[in-house]
Amino acid sequence: MVLKNYKYSLFVRFWIQAYLDFCAATVLGLINFSMNNPSQYTNIALCIGLFTFEILTPILFFMFSYKNLNKIQHKERGFERLWSSFFYEFKNDQGLMSTQYYSIFFVRRLIYILNLTLLIDYSATQVTINSVLSFTTVFYLIKYRPYLEKVQQATNLATEIGIFLFVTIMAGNIFGLASSVQAKFELTMVVVAIAIMAVQMCGSLVIFGQTCYEIIKDGIQKTTGKNAKKLEQVNDPSGQTIHMDRDTEFYHRRITDNMTLVRSETRPTAVEEFILD
């Protein structure tokens, strides 16, 4: 039973969050490897294994999404239980490409690390590659609008546009501009970086506020619904049901079973005998 309900979400989310760090560690390990002592053999073998898996990650994800596209789009319960971390944030309603945010996510980070480590002496090429990667993400977010939450969609789009502007402005530093112009470029970069962080923080606060509002709203609705049900229907000791009409101030007694009680056939109570007398 435990295996049946087992979830991979923890490991999937961990790999998504740690992918960039693992890429940086393995690439640096491969570049700076040494065979001076036996312990380095283990290090290089581990780096090769991890780097191979890092390269395969976007490829395997694309193949996995293609094979299970129907399950993704129809939100099959068993499938979502296992792989929801890849797809629960997105609408996945525009074909295969609308499910490929994480393919772009992984490829972008892998190329980014290779760009920083292997092309360190080619600044213009680095800036160009980073600009292309950022623009690709912006284009994807505009074309497919993949996120379910409008706030999350707007926040991520604004963040990616800010990153694209930051990388583009940073290119000004490689052209040997005058110190005054370069100072303005640097100030603009600082402003853009602060704006990116502010957008992310505000987006998180808005989403948090919306979540709290929905929780409170659901709680109030459940409480109100239970109270309304109690007011509308209360069983009395005789087996009858007392229904309260909320449009008036009177209670109306209705017989819930199929029997018709004839008052003349029932024995009057002591109170009724006193009133009749």
Automatic annotation (TrEMBL):
Keywords: Membrane, Transmembrane, Transmembrane helix. The chain crosses the membrane at residues 12-35, 41-66, 101-120, 126-142, 154-175, 187-208. It comes from the Eukaryota. This is Uncharacterized protein.
